[in-house]
Amino acid sequence: MNVDEILEKLEKGEISISRLDQALKSSNLAALVRRLYLERKYNVKLSAIASTLLDFEDLVGHNIENPIGAVQVPIGIVGPLKINGDYAKGEFFVPMATTEGALVAGVNRGVKTLTLSGGVKTKILYDGMARAPLIWTPNVEEASKLSLWLKSNFSQFKELTKQVTSHGELKDMQVFVVGNMVWPRFVFNTADAMGMNMATIASDRICKYIDDSYEGPHKCVSLSGNLCVDKKPSYLDKLLGRGKYVIAESIIKKEILKDVMRLTSYEIDYINKSKNLLGNAVSGSLSYNAQFANIIAAIFLATGQDLAQVVESSLGYVWTETRGEDLYISVTLTSLEVGTVGGGTWLPTQKEALQLLGIAGGGNPQGSNALKLAEIIASTALAGELNLLAAQAAGELASAHEKLGRTKK
User: Fold this and answer.
1) Catalytic residue, candidates 158, 167, 254, 401
2) What average pLDDT is seen over the chain?
3) Rounded to whole angstroms, how far apart are CA atoms 261 and 254?
4) Disulfide: which of 75, 185, 200, 224 matches 132 by Cβ 3.0-4.6 Å?
5) 192, 306, 375, 385: which one is catalytic?
6) What residues does 328 pair with on adjacent strands?
7) What is the pLDDT of residue 401?
């Protein structure tokens, strides 16, 4: 069938948009037909969406279904950002994809201040991707027995994980019991992958083993029982960590604060504690910061991360102290979920962004590239928080957005 025949069948409802790849035996042609169908149906032109360098023959079945084109988001850079981390060492230009005017400029002012102050110190305290199945038992007695059995079989679960992947391992398990329901929260080392797929497949293998081996009455209700916790804000991720638990800190001399920010350490410390701590406490927020999500979302988009995981990746704290007349400032991200392989990291523009940071693909040793990315993101978040606190303390927030963030047309 030619394109006109396929379009006619779509319009008559004789074929669905999800069957086009199979019918046409080409995902690129299927994307064209879907787009033409929508243009006809709604009398719109989708020429900008059509303008893409993506090859859907590679993407369908891995990254997208029913494609019609792509969305373009501008990428800016901030830098040079000096980082003195365990994995990120040196000066970096960090790509940020965003449509929010003033964001890149503001973060860049924070970057300048940190770099002039000698840079950012970073430390990763924890690394582990969690998946928590939910298992039903008939009563608390059976739930208790299952809990003990799970703990006694941890070494077997580790062996099962090795059968699923050569790049990761089961490193921990926390068991939660509420009434007759049991959640084993499996935590995996996933090397340079963000690791959600790896954790899910390994957890599925473990659940099948539980079904085959545990003799008491039970049923795996769901492979994900929401104690993972994936794509939702939670105290559990803040306390136990998920992904990378990373801290970035810096001490900024009073002279640099005065020259760049036109403020004192006392002014920034006061607004942080009154806004980020007291304000967030009064509001009932789970996260004590001003704009982690802004920076994390922009870097996630630029580097091919799972955008939905900005939710838990943005959990964390900003802490400040006056040290004489200097300022100590740190950010703590408790569940930063990132990778440099898998997901969208292999797409052309995202791969180039990772290459810009020197972390495309797997690291040597395994896992080092993802850890380096975590330190870079935390350091950039520190720059963003410092600048926003300073802008608000100086009363510059509205004027900056008026100058850089308003629509020109």
Assistant:
1) 401
2) 95
3) 10
4) 185
5) 306
6) 251, 321
7) 52
Walk me through the domains of the chain, giving residue ranges and CATH numbers: 22-72 (no CATH), 77-127+243-404 (3.90.770.10), 133-222 (3.30.70.420)
* Residue 86: alpha-carbon gap to chain centroid: 21
pLDDT of residue 141: 98
Tokens of 202: 């390994």
Q: Determine what percent of the chain is predicted with pLDDT higher than 90.
A: 93
What is the predicted pLDDT for the residue at 151? 98
What single string gives the DSSP state of each residue in 307-330? GGGHHHHT-EEEEEEEETTEEEEE
Q: For the whole prediction, is pTM greater than 0.70?
A: yes
Catalytic residue chosen out of the listed positions 100, 172, 352, 396: 100
Q: Mean pLDDT over residues 292-318, rounded?
A: 98
Cross-strand pairs, 105: none
Annotated catalytic, 167? no
402 carries an active-site annotation: no
Element (H, E) at 107: helix 103-116
Tokens describing residue 204:
């599925």
CA distance 209 to 164: 13
Tell me whether residue 396 is one of the annotated catalytic residues: no
Q: How many CB atoms lie within 10 A of CB 355?
A: 11
Point out the catalytic residue in the list 89, 231, 254, 273.
231
| 231 is an active site residue | yes
Assigned token pair, 87: 């994995």
Residue 77: how many CB atoms within 10 A of its CB? 18
